[in-house]
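queue> pop job 88
queue> type: inverse folding (structure -> sequence)
queue> payload:
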């Protein structure tokens, strides 16, 4: 996967130093400490931030709430959380403001 993305970056004259973050699904091929995609990107740009995809986190939490047959109240909370996360992640400005708020 890295070779494919790297060739795209080179073909379009994009610099790895301009890549600020990578979001992945947490698969071992993505996160492998030596040969995973994120490790290879970190070789190209050590300042890259790696995060787990919010949609995957959200989905995992939602599945847990249904699998365990938790109360309707918790289901409502999960829906509210889903709406909030979707709002924050829907626009890059929202994400930047939220990140800035969390850092302070």
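queue> result:
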């Amino acid at each position: 996967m890295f070779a494919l993305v790297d060739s795209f970056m080179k073909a379009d004259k994009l610099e790895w130093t301009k890549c600020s973050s990578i979001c992945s699904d947490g698969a071992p091929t993505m996160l492998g400490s030596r040969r995973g995609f994120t490790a290879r990107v970190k070789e190209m740009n050590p300042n890259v931030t790696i995060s787990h995809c919010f949609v995957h986190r959200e989905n995992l939490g939602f599945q847990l709430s249904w699998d365990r047959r938790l109360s309707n109240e918790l289901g409502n909370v999960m829906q509210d959380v889903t709406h909030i996360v979707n709002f924050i992640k829907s626009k890059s400005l929202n994400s930047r403001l939220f990140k800035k708020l969390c850092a302070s």
